Amino acid sequence: LSKLILKQGYKIVICGTEREKEIGEFIKEGSSFIINLCGKTDILTVSGIFYLSKAIISNDSGLMHLAAALKKPQIAIFGSTDPKLTCPLNPCAVVIKKDLPCSPCFKRTCKYKHYKCLYSITPSEVYSHLEKLLNN
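The chain above was modelled as a monomer; its predicted structure follows.
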């Protein structure tokens, strides 16, 4: 997904907790156009980053709700959780979720070990929604 976004000339800022720093580094790997701020910000700083962003892509998390509160164009990716219960309250939000027999399970780890609820969401699918959001 990051490669598709970078091809269009956008820069990427990754926000998250210290626990997500390694994932941020994996995404950033080899790119000077990606900034990994995982574990380096507080909620006020992230609010400012989101406010200045063209769009936010996130999972079902507190930062998803922050983006919604700011009414920023956003894509919210749901795996094991249910958007009917915790969707972003934002008219500029797109929710991506796959309806599978095992979801929503509300588990952090997949008891079937396949994580299809997340792996079946492709980078090109997310990017397609992002293009639409940015061109409106």
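The longest strand covers residues 74-78.
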